[in-house]
Amino acid sequence: MYGRLDVLVDNAAVNSVVAPLEHTGAAAAAALLDANVLGSLRVTDAFVDRHGPVQR
User: Record's superkingdom (predicted)?
Assistant: First the structure.
């Protein structure tokens, strides 16, 4: 009914700006996780809350 929801997490841009996670501090690693993974999950959750499950 609403089509397909695609969430793309593009780490290519992040890798060019930030050192590998093993060379960053805990706060920087947590910020990367929040922006790239948790942010995508929040967007997906908000979409599903508003529109209901995607029907195929």
Answer: Bacteria
Tell which residue, 42, 44, 43, 20, has the closest CA to residue 32: 20
Query: What value, to the nearest 5°, has the Cα angle with vertex 24 and ends 21 and 38?
Result: 55
C-alpha span between 3 and 55 (Å, rounded): 7
DSSP class of 38: I
Give the percent of the chain with pLDDT over 70: 57
Q: In terms of pTM, does the model score above 0.85?
A: no
Q: How many CB atoms lie within 10 A of CB 50?
A: 8
